Amino acid sequence: MTISDEQLAAFADGELTGDEQAAVAAAVAADPALAQAVARHRALREKLAARFAPVLDEPLPARLTASLAPLQAPSQTAPSADNVVPFPARARRRWGWAVAPALAASLALAIFLPRTGDGPAGAVDGVLAQTLDRQLVADQSGDADPRILLSFRRSGGDYCRAFAGSAQSGIACREDGGWHMVETAAGGAGQGTAYRQAGSSELMALAQEMAVGGALDAEAEQRAQAAGWQAQ
Amino acid sequence: MQSTFENRLLELLPRMRRFALGLAGHPADGDDLCQMTIERALARRDSWQEGTRLDSWMYRIMRNIWIDETRARSRRAQTFVDEEAGLGQGAAGAQEAAVELGDIDRALTSLPADQREAVLLVMVEGFSYREAAEVIGCPVGTLNSRLVRGRDALLAKLEEAA
User: Fold this and answer.
1) Based on the structure, what is the number of domains in chain B?
2) Inter-CA distances, A105 with A102, A109, A110, A169, B69, Å
3) Site from B16, B32, B42, B105 to mutate, A interface, most A CB atoms within 10 angstroms
4) What is the pLDDT of residues B90-123, one digit of tens each?
5) Which InterPro entries match (chain A) (predicted)?
6) Are residues B72 and B98 in the same domain?
7) Domain residue ranges in chain A
8) A108 to chain B: which residues are within 8 Å by CB?
9) Which stretches within chain A are classed as H helix?
10) Residue B32 and residue B8 share a domain
11) Are strands A178-186 and A168-175 parallel, antiparallel or unpaired?
12) Closest partner residue to A9 among B25, B31, B151, by Cβ?
């Protein structure tokens, strides 16, 4: 009998019963190629299970247990429905997961000015360039302006940094030895906290779309800075 | 009653974090996804029926949030991402650049969403095909074929990386 890929996978996963199970088992026993396919499938399953098993033993982050263990000390971070979480606290989140869906449709379109023209992205100089060169997410001061939201590498390996400031916010990438804006958002000058936060959340979401391999951690960021933000 | 529900969620949390990490591909994203799932589960606790499996219900919530988010993100990508940034996943050079991810994570994040969730539910979370299909809300046969495609793609990528 001919064994389909679906049948073989189901067999390897122990999903078949009765005659079908017996038929596939016989075919596998008679055909080394099928037996090898089953073995590969099971090896993959073990590999995947082993990769994720350690998560079960990790300590649970307080932000996840806070709302499930009401008898413990009241959480100081419980968000209220319409109040804005202070900007620095929000900015420490690496990505905009939680906030992006609500904001994506409305605010993002209003805030972002798409990159104009077909020419090279605008070069960055002056104070902003220095900030992008020097400031690390891990050790910037609480009221840094602009604040670096995160650093990452985009497809092709260039380092990019998302930042938010009162004058300007956006994402700049390192190209040809200099920083170039690839996404621009208006700064928060004269606006309330909500505005700034919306901008930075959207920047996070955009960064996430551009990033290959997630945000740099503190160590990787330091190494990148030490190497002058040059793509290897 | 109330604390029972919350205690049960608490007991499920390690598994939820595992599934979330697999879906999101990054620990911080995974915990964000977990947090959203908990919030939604608490808000909709009345729609869970006593006597049915709470874990399947939670997985379904998480999976729905993730799928919605993935779709929203790809819509945004079409609006904002220029050709230079590309669409990230699967782009040339992506594999080398993702230094901090293991081979398995990279291979997983390169899978389409429907294959990724099928692979994770069955091969990591240990659901039967029928249970996994219920979480996703698709026929068992569909789950089976997504699993085959996802598994073949993973094997190809991992063997290529080895």
Assistant:
1) 2
2) 7, 7, 9, 19, 12
3) B32
4) 444 443 333 346 889 989 999 999 999 999 999 9
5) Anti_sigma_zinc_sf (IPR041916)
6) no
7) 1-73, 85-226
8) 76
9) 5-12, 18-30, 32-52, 62-65, 87-91, 100-103, 109-111, 126-134, 193-210, 218-226
10) yes
11) antiparallel
12) B151
Question: Do residues A197 and A84 touch, judged by C-beta distance below 8 A?
Answer: yes
Higher pLDDT, A103 or A226: A226
Shared domain check, B134 and B82: no
Q: Are residues B27 and B69 in the same domain?
A: yes
Q: Residue B53 belongs to a domain with what CATH number?
A: 1.10.1740.10
- Domain, as residue range, for B157: 93-162
What number of C-beta contacts closer than 8 Å exist between A and B? 183
The pLDDT tens digits for B119-161 are: 999 999 999 999 999 999 999 999 999 999 999 999 999 887 7
pLDDT of residue A220: 86
Q: Cβ contacts (< 8 Å) between B38 and chain A: which residues? A: 64, 67-68
Tokens describing residue B122: 């069955």
Q: Does B67 share its domain with B102?
A: no
Query: What pLDDT does residue A145 have?
Result: 81
> Do B59 and B2 lie in a common domain?
yes
Same structural domain, B74 and B3 = yes
Closest Cα to residue B67, out of B15, B138, B161? B138
Check residue B79 and give its pLDDT: 57
**Contact between A197 and A93 (Cβ < 8 Å):** no
Measured between alpha carbons, how far is residue A101 from residues A80, A171, B155 in Å? 18, 20, 33
